[in-house]
Amino acid sequence: MGRRVRRSRCRGPPRCPAARRRGRRARGPRRARGRRRGQRRARGRDRRAARVGRARRRRPCRTRRRASGATRRRDRARRGRLENPGRRWETGQVSTTVPQATLAAIVARFAPGGTAIPLAPDASTRTFLRLEAEGRRRGVAVLDPDGGAAARRRMRAAAELLHGIDVRVPQLLDEDDELGVLVFEDLGDRLLADALETMDAQERLAAYRAAGRIAARIARLGTRRVAGAHALARPVLDRERLRTELAQFAVQDVAGRRGLADAGLMRELGAVLDWIADRAAALPRELAHRDFHARNLLVLSDGTLGVLDFQDCLAAPRFYDLASLVRDPYVEPAEPLERAATDGWKDEGGVPTHGEDPAFAIVALQRDLKAIGTYAYQQRVMRRAAFAQAIPRAERLAMRAVAALSAGDRAALEDVFVRIGFPRL
Predict the structure, then answer these.
(1) What is the reported pTM?
(2) How many CB atoms neighbour CB 202 within 10 A?
(3) Which DSSP letter does residue 295 get?
(4) 296, exposed or middle or buried, with CB in 10 Å at 0-12, 13-18, 19+?
């Protein structure tokens, strides 16, 4: 009887370290057979790697493969979430990234015996749940696991500040730090982007004029309130952050979605993006909602406008919210709506409008390129194909902003963007 050999639990191929140690401990013919089998496998891997032109890569053992599978499942879960916003979810049936026990606790805490209905997250990574019980709405629960307690503090501070300057945002009804949830007033579902289709011409003009006034109020009155140690005073949308947003356009759209790999073109594009970030960062900063467009504005029952998605308020280059509103790729407002919005901006005491200040074109261009990068990311990484529909509109708006620049700047930027694939105006 030969000596019994202890074997490692790992059953990976011979290139796995645990398998190599097992082979060294084996005895007699079994060791020789295992060594020859491992050599044949190694030669086969080398030949396959050479055929496809890749360097030979170490194959992980089964334990590592299981971890990789868990990572893939987690990433798929992040992407999927709330793709059916109209479906009703009973307690214990919600399929989101939030743990099931947390969801059950949220419903039990804020809507006992009720239900939670996922709301479309748009481009946000947050989770939104409409809470209903006894036939009526109890509020909208907002969860931001990635942001944590700091994100909840900013959201509370933004809601308080905007209420203080008469901007209609949902009121904070309740919260639970243990569950990591804030519950806000439910202002309804009628987004301005959807309501435009049923409004008459005068109603559309009035809505955009009101939106322009709200944007100017945030810039004029909000800026005064965030001075000093206010929770929204930092961070600011400075040169580094502006350039980071533009980098997403280069990575996700130009290199990723379009697949362009021309090194010379990418260097030229990098110089253009540096120039845009430098020019935008040199402008005075004012408080901005930062995502102020028709899909974040609600038409309320009394005809006024409510504002959603306000938690990312910070100081940004002048005209930031006005550019978001009138150069909105989701709806691409017509010229009369642009004029109505800028008239509302002036009514509220905003600085000269985009037709009177060439700096507006720089801010609008940065916003449009950032939007294209976001849409490409949502399409490619988050698997939300609907965002790709807005990219052609954003390209047209970006080229409109380029056309408003001085002749020398316009020629250089237009050449780069046309070579990328933007339409020539």
Answers:
(1) 0.76
(2) 8
(3) G
(4) buried
Domain ranges in the chain? Answer: 79-184, 192-420
Dihedral sign from CA coordinates of 163, 165, 168, 169: negative
Are 325 and 293 spatial neighbours (Cβ–Cβ below 8 Å)? yes
Closest C-alpha to 143, from 178, 181, 95: 181
Residue 134 contacts residue 106 (beta carbons within 8 Å) = no
Instruction: Please report, for residues 101, 139, 336, 361, the alpha-carbon distance to residue 181 in angstroms, rounded to integers and kept in the order given.
Output: 14, 12, 41, 39
Of 170, 161, 101, the residue nearest 141 (C-alpha): 170
- Name the DSSP class of 127: E
Q: How far apart are CA 310 and CA 94, in angstroms?
A: 26
Domain 192-420 in CATH 3.90.1200.10? The answer is yes
DSSP-derived pairing of the beta strands 285-288 and 305-307: unpaired
Burial of 53 (0-12, 13-18, 19+ CB in 10 A): exposed
- DSSP run (H or E) holding 213: helix 201-217
CA distance 235 to 54: 43
**Number of alpha carbons in the 13 Å side-chain half-sphere of residue 204:** 19
What percent of the chain has a predicted confidence (pLDDT) above 70? 75
Per-residue pLDDT reduced to its tens digit, 67-109: 455 455 444 444 443 333 333 333 334 345 677 888 899 999 9
